[in-house]
Design goal:
about 15% strand; alpha+beta; 4 helices; Arc Repressor Mutant, subunit A
């Protein structure tokens, strides 16, 4: 059951984690996948592309091609203005949400 809870939690926030990373700078897939896999938010780069596809369909990210010094042209992703607005809404709701969940589920003595 524990794995299922973690999986559901990650599914609920991974899109916002991608938006947060893209708010810093445009990134290509591998660049995005590294911190997400390192923190256990996605299993592999292969699981990132469906997320990016959903974000593009929603108009929250766009893509563009950029030449690479070390190989073929890379597809970069960047936040759209709608993506920035969605991320800001998430940021405003995240702390109160986590506080509420922490209060409801408890887990601390005292």
């Amino acid at each position: 059951m524990t794995a299922d809870v973690g999986t559901q939690l990650r599914k609920g926030v991974v899109e916002y984690c991608v938006l947060g990373l893209l708010a810093r700078e445009p990134m290509y897939g591998w660049q995005l996948a590294e911190p997400l896999t390192a923190h256990g938010m996605i299993a592999s780069i292969g699981t990132l592309y469906p997320v990016l596809g959903r974000l593009r369909e929603k108009g929250l990210v766009s893509s563009f091609d950029r030449d690479s010094d070390s190989g073929p042209v890379r597809k970069y992703y960047r936040l759209t203005s709608a993506g920035s607005q969605q991320l800001e809404l998430f940021r405003q709701q995240w702390a109160p949400f986590t506080d509420t969940v922490t209060n409801l589920v408890g887990g601390t003595d005292g």
